[in-house]
Structures are given as C-alpha cells and as structure tokens.
Amino acid sequence: MAIVAMILGAVLVLLVLWEGFETIILPRRVTRRFRITRVFYRSSWRPWTWLIHNFVPAKRRETWLSYFGPLSLLLLLSLWAAVLIAGFALIHWGGSWLLYRDGGTELISDLYLSGTTFFTLGIGDVVPKTSLGRLLVVVESGMGFAFLALVISYLPALNQSFARREVSISLLDARAGSPPTASEMLRRHSHHGGAESLRELLHEWERWSAEFLEGHLSYPVLAYFRSQHDNQSWLTALTAILDTCALIMAGVEGTCNRQAELTFAMSRHAVVDLALVFKTQPRQGADRLPSAKLDEICDILRRSGHTLKERDVLEQNLAELRLMYEPYVNALSRHFKVGLPPWVARENGVDNWQASFWKPPAKHHKAQEEVEERHF
Question: Quick check: 255 and 308 in contact, CB under 8 A?
C-alpha cells in the first residue's frame, strides 16, 4: 500500500509539472489527448453556461460569462497547487519519513507538512526524520517558489496579450460599426482615398490574425476573456473581417483584392486552428446572408460608389468563400456563446463611441440605465 501511494504521488507531481510546462512555458499547441487543463475547462465551462442561461437574466448574462476567463484561471492554478500538495503528501506518507510530535502517522499530517512546505511557511511542528524526507521537503519548497514565480510572470503576459487583442477590436468601432459588419466597413471606406485606408486596415488585421493565432494557441484560456462591450468580441471582429474580405474577393471591383486574399487566408487559418484547439466540430448554422439581404448589400455598395460584378457571379463566388469559414465560426460561436455579426448594420444603429451614459443621443429617448446597458 505504501509503495502504491508513493507511485501515485510521484505520478501526480510529474503530471502537474508537465501540465504546467505545456500550458505556461511551451510556446506551441499541445496535441496530447488527455490534459488536466482541457478536462478542467470542458467540465467547468458547460456547467457555467448552463447555470447562467437558466438562472441569470438575459441582460446580465454577458457580464457573468465574462467572469469565467479570469476566475477559471485562478481555479486552475489552485487545482495545480492542490494536486502538487497531495502528490508530495502521498510520497511522505508512503515513505514514513516524517517525525510527528504526537507520534502519529496520519495522512492529514502529511498533507499539513506538504502544504506548509509548498507555501514555504516553515512552521516546524512536523519535520522529516530521514535524509530522503529532508531532500523531498527542500524540493517541494523550491517548487513552491518556482510556482509562485511562474504565476507572477504568467498573469502579466496574459493581460498584455489580451490588451493588444482588444485595441484592434476597439478601433473597428468607428470603421465598421458596433457590432462591425462587412457592408458598413465597405461603405465607410468609400470616400476619396478610402481604398487605400481599407487596404491598410486589412493589412493590420492580417498581422492581428497572426498574432491572435500565436497567442491563443500558446494560451487558449485567452479565448474565454471577453471584450468590454457586449456587442464586441474577438470572434465577432474576426468574422466581420472574413465577411469583408470574402465580399471584396467575390465581386467588389477596384478595391484591395490582393490584400483581401492575404487577410482572408490568415484569418481563416486562425478560426480553423482555434476550432481544432477547442474541439468544436464545424457545423452549418442559420443562413446569415439570405438572398434579400445580399440584394440590400449590393444596393448599399452601389450607392456608396463601389463597382460590383454581376449579381449571380457575386452570389456564387461569395457562397463558395463562405463555406470555407462559416462552419468554423458557427461552431466557435456556439461554444463560446458569442453571437456572430450581421452582414448589414441595424437601422439607426449607434456606435459605441457615439453612446454615452451621461448624454444619450437625442434621437434615442431612453433612461440612463438603459443607455449604460446598451453601451457596455
């Protein structure tokens, strides 16, 4: 029994150390099937969303969903620490290397020593009595320091990556609406010099998609961190960019077609790999672009001065391009409980930068509380 306990403890310690290395230090996607982190998020995200859907009012759900990312990270780190403490305690208990003041050999005392050692409290009421026991205490104490150092370095890295991601999403507000839409993005870039501005914007989003992919493959927990505004998210913005590129490639002439192709390729790469990381199988959802809505888009673009290909050619090309990414964004949308953007902005819609809690637009006669909820 003692040998089994020691082997089990050693396995737990090694498993958590390897898991922490893959999650925090290793800068690439992990393909191993069984991972504590993956099991943790799969077993906690679904109950969390179920509870929110059934017990939280609709207007507060987005706020409660936003708690999951930071809270789950703290819980995961706590889980790792608890497993490490339990693993070392099993090794102590199996080896009987400790000297107990009351003469006992209870497992609870081993857990107590393991905990005080890991968190470097050093109380001294339970001490090792053999050289192996002393060595194990020193190793666990050093591991506790290393664990604290990794946590201190890990959290700022996550926050910086999150901030960089959100800056570009916020910049879409005035360029494509809230939420961003493909037709609005093209309409707002129909002014003189707009084609070059749109090319620069798509170039920035090509780089953003590459940075997003790199950061979220290394730190998948970032995908659960939600934006400040309910009508903004990384998935909404990325889908709007894909919609815009697809529309340009399908039949908007005289625009930045080559840059649209490059941005489309990088953005699709991002959503496909994220779908693989979170095991979200591609699926067809409701048709986001019925024929009548496409007619409306064509009318908007023509009135804005854009030249379009023939209606049938544009529709066919667009349908082929949409099949390349929509099943993946539909699956990610279902998993993360994030709505996808429409193709056409809502009538009389107000951008986030136009709304204010203190001074709501005159055309919207709403109470301040309602304006605040709409703004955030």
Answer: no
CA dist 241 and 248 (Å) reads: 11
Q: Tally Cβ neighbours within 10 Å of residue 169.
A: 20
Reduced to 3 states, what is the DSSP secondary structure of residue 180? coil
Tell me if residue 99 falls in helix, strand or coil.
strand
Residue bearing tokens 């310690």: 13
Find all residues with CB under 8 Å of 82, minimum gap 6, and list them. Answer: none
Amino acid in position 28? R
pTM of the model: 0.85
Residue bearing tokens 């007619």: 295
Cβ 268 vs Cβ 322: under 8 Å: no
CA torsion angle for 249, 251, 257, 262 (degrees, to 10)?
0
* Pair of tokens at residue 229: 């505004």
CA distance 42 to 104: 40
Could you give the CA distance from residue 301 to residue 185 in angstroms, rounded to a whole number?
10
* β-sheet bridge partners, residue 100: 126
pLDDT tens string 45-97: 999 999 999 999 988 898 899 999 999 988 988 998 999 999 988 888 877 66
For the record, the structure tokens of 126 come out as: 């339970």
Question: Quick count: other Cβ atoms within 10 Å of Cβ 119?
Answer: 15
